[in-house]
Amino acid sequence: MKTLSLMYLLIVFLPLLGSSVAGFFGRFLGSEGTAIITTTCVSFSSIFSFLAFYEVAPGASACYLRIAPWISSEMFDASWGFFGDREVTG
Q1: Is 74 helix (H, G, I), strand (E, B) or coil?
Q2: C or N: which end of the chain has fewer Cβ atoms within 10 Å?
Q3: Contact 38, 26 (CB under 8 A)
């Protein structure tokens, strides 16, 4: 379960990481280095997205990843997270 939740988080944060590294360290890496970093991060994110799509859409398994609680009252619970099921993906 931990590896799947890590995969879903990497889908979102790998492109962000690649663009941040290219933005902050682009001068040191050069144009070829930033192209390699950003392309690698987006490629891995794409591969993980295809794996997640295959798990959720044809596999018909719902996936909910809770990131952090937001509002917790007696009978009301709202939290930050990601939700994917068959109705959302296709």
Answers
A1: coil
A2: N
A3: no
User: Position 53: which residue type?
Assistant: F
Cα three-residue angle 59-60-65, rounded to 5 degrees: 100
- Give residue 68's pLDDT: 78
* 70 secondary structure, DSSP code: E
Which residue pairs, CB below 8 angstroms and at least 24 apart, start in 3-7?
A: 4/55, 4/63, 5/65, 7/48, 7/51, 7/52
State which amino acid sits at residue 35. Answer: A
Distance CA 67, CA 57 (A): 22
Contact 74, 85 (CB under 8 A): no
What is the SS3 assignment for 59? coil
